[in-house]
Amino acid sequence: MNSREPIGVFDSGVGGLTVVKEIFRQLPQENLIYVGDNARCPYGSRPPQQVREFAFEIMDFLLEFGVKMIIIACNTATAASLSEAKNRYAVPVLGVITPGSRAAISATRTGRIGVIGTEVTVSTGAYAREIHRINPRLQVVSQACPPFVPIVEEGTIHSPQTEQAVAQYLAPLQREMIDTLILGCTHYPLLQPVIQKVLGEQVQLISSAEETAREASLILAERNLLNDHNMRPVHRFFTSGDRNLFSRIAERWLGQPVAVESWDLQALSK
Ligand code: DGL
Question: Which ligand 1 atom is the nearest neighbour of the CA of 79?
């Protein structure tokens, strides 16, 4: 069976590109449509109800391309909309919180797991709930880090102020002696070198990207939806924000040229 329909992937901005990079690595044959809602980013400090509405708008747009699967490559939108999205759409919808939780559970040796994320992700307690559903004996401490997303979106990763902000927000988790830290926002892997430097090599950093791509691959295989056609895959990237800024960050992260199209938010109200 050969299913050439694209996989739909979205985030509030460039963070979901961390998941895209893993999809390119693990599923190189797949066609893909990405939407970054940069104009309305960050989602992380908005009311969850609004994040859910935005997420549905994007998923409806992705379905216009006939996507065979949707990956919510955003922890905030996963926390706010995944369970409803699964009922609303006929195609499989995948979030990043379950895969990230699983990866952390298998990585921890001391049973002390830290989670960093946006205010919405941390306030919904989605990670702690998911981890405890699988293994109630583990200790989970969480910390919201609101400045991290703007740092990544503005592309100011390598500045002394960034290191200072990272050190300040991670200090409470260091005091809790965690051995594993979930990067519970898809923007954060872009800050990985700074986070690792602040925490030291003894703390393992978990990005849900790898595990999410693996899960996508399993689901597609199970449902006979993998694209085993030999044609060069087509990848399309849309942003509601600045196309140049998006393509600069995307090209650096993905290591290849990225043509970016506009997703017109105004068309939504028509
Ligand atoms: N990248 C998103 C996440 O994984 C959200 C960033 C934001 O818009 O606040 O949570």
Answer: 10
Q: Tell me the per-residue pLDDT of 114-156, one tens digit each, with 9 for 90 and over.
A: 999 999 999 999 999 999 999 999 999 999 999 999 999 888 8
Domains of the chain (ranges; CATH) run: 7-95+210-269 (3.40.50.1860), 97-208 (3.40.50.1860)
Active-site residue, selected from the candidate residues 55, 80, 151, 185: 185
Q: If you count them, how many residues does the chain have? A: 270
Per-residue CA distances from 157 to 1, 10, 148, 222 (Å): 43, 22, 9, 39
Q: Tens digit of pLDDT for each residue in 162-192? A: 999 999 999 999 999 999 999 999 999 999 9
The answer to whether 184 and 207 have CB atoms below 8 angstroms apart is no
Pocket of ligand 1 contains residue 44 by CB under 6 Å: yes
Ligand 1 midpoint to CA 76 (Å): 5
Residue 145 known to be catalytic: no
216 near 92, Cβ under 8 Å? no
Of 9, 11, 58, 153, best ligand 1 pocket probe by most atoms within 8 Å of the beta carbon:
11
Residue range 10-40, pLDDT digits in tens: 999 999 999 999 999 999 999 999 999 999 9
Compute how many other C-beta atoms are within 10 angstroms of the C-beta atom of residue 12. 33
Q: Which atom of ligand 1 is nearest to the CA of 43?
A: 8
Alpha helices in the chain (DSSP H): 17-26, 48-63, 75-88, 97-107, 119-124, 126-134, 148-154, 160-175, 192-199, 208-222, 243-254
